Amino acid sequence: MVSKLEVILLMMKDKIRTGLMAYGMSGKVFHAPFFYTHDGFDLAAIVERSKNEAVMDYPAIKTYRGNEELLADDTLDLIVVNTPNFTHFEYAKAALNANKHVLIEKPFSVKQEEAKILFKLAKEKGKKVLAYQNRRFDSDFLAIKKVIETGVLGDLIEVHIRFDRYRNDISPKAFKEEDVPGTGIFYDLGAHILDQAIALFGIPASFTKTYGKFREHTKVDDYAQAHLKYPSGLQVFTTANMLVVKPQPAYAVYGTKGTLLKYRTDVQEPQLLSGVKPNEAIYGIEDSGKEGMLYLMKPNGQVEEINIAAEKGNYNLLFDHVYETIVNGRDYFVKEEDILTQLSILE
């Protein structure tokens, strides 16, 4: 006869005890709700240097006042590095040296060489160091990826991936606006769209970049574009702009047989900000009327217009991958070469 305690222990055996290094927007919105609702994780600890907000949301959580205390907790298996960009490398290295697995918010690091050091150290320690690239699970991205993979567009010629916002003021978050390594719109939003381009089309043969500073008193770039060139002749433009009043389509894909357009319509971030939980039925489902449009040239010269319904956005899938990689040793969906390529462009 198995006791109740033994059943509980068996259920907890493969749970990954997780600690977050910060509880700002990233921790509150993009990490804690998922670790808390996912059966494979135990959200166990968090760093808040002066506040006590996490324990209000998750009463069973342990609050630490510094990263040193967090890393000294021998009960933790996984550390999430969701701190300012320029700290990612040192904090991730410290976590690996504390024999923890590590999940790092984008950008993985500031420099490509730092990423190589982390990958090498993780192998030496027998631990996983993983990139948090949640935008591969946006509903709009999943929808255009599905269409591209069918081949219905023919040979691809030109692709535009954009991340636009309108924020003309200087953010009060100093770590985003000071001229220190890893700041600027390309390390922020550009890290997402570069990863999406690499996920869709692989490693480019070459690239060029353009930066701009247009907000009054800005110290960092608020416009950036990378032009990725592929051996097939495909031209991919990834653009991030903080001064767009009316956004253009986030995805514009031009092929020899058709055109695909899709606006940035993923609802996960606003849902999470409004308090929707990742395990609720409505989570990740777009409102109707925001479908993508596929335009195909028919043999008779007529253009066929097809509505492209959104896929369900689902950041839960990222946490499934993290669990499977750590517990079952499966390959992670973001490859080392993806990260190294992304950073070679971002640097």
Distance between the termini: 60 Å
Percent strand: 15-25%
Largest sheet: 8 strands, mixed
Envelope shape: globular
Average pLDDT metric = 94
> Roughly how much helix do the residues carry, as a percent range?
25-40%
Neighbour order of strands in the largest sheet:
8-9-10-7-11-12-13-14
Helix run count: 12
Give a count of the beta strands, DSSP E runs of length 2 or more: 14
Q: In terms of per-residue confidence, which ranges show pLDDT below 50 for 5 or more consecutive residues?
A: 1-12
Secondary structure class reads: alpha/beta
Radius of gyration: 21 Å
Topology:
Elements: H1 4-12, E1 16-20, H2 25-37, E2 41-47, H3 53-57, E3 62-64, H4 67-71, E4 78-81, H5 88-97, E5 101-105, H6 112-125, E6 129-132, H7 139-150, E7 156-164, H8 174-177, H9 185-201, E8 206-212, E9 223-229, E10 235-241, E11 251-255, E12 258-262, H10 268-273, E13 292-297, E14 303-308, H11 316-328, H12 336-346
Parallel strand pairs: 1-2, 1-4, 2-3, 4-5, 5-6, 7-10
Antiparallel strand pairs: 7-11, 8-9, 9-10, 11-12, 12-13, 13-14
Helix pairs in contact: 5-6, 6-12, 9-12
Structural summary, described in words:
With 347 residues, the protein is an alpha/beta fold. The strands form 2 sheets. It has an 8-stranded mixed beta sheet with strand order 8-9-10-7-11-12-13-14, with helices on one face. The chain has a 6-stranded parallel beta sheet with strand order 3-2-1-4-5-6, sandwiched between helices. A hairpin with a 5-residue loop joins strand 13 and strand 14. The radius of gyration is 21 Å and the shape is globular. The N and C termini lie far apart (60 Å). The N terminus is likely disordered.
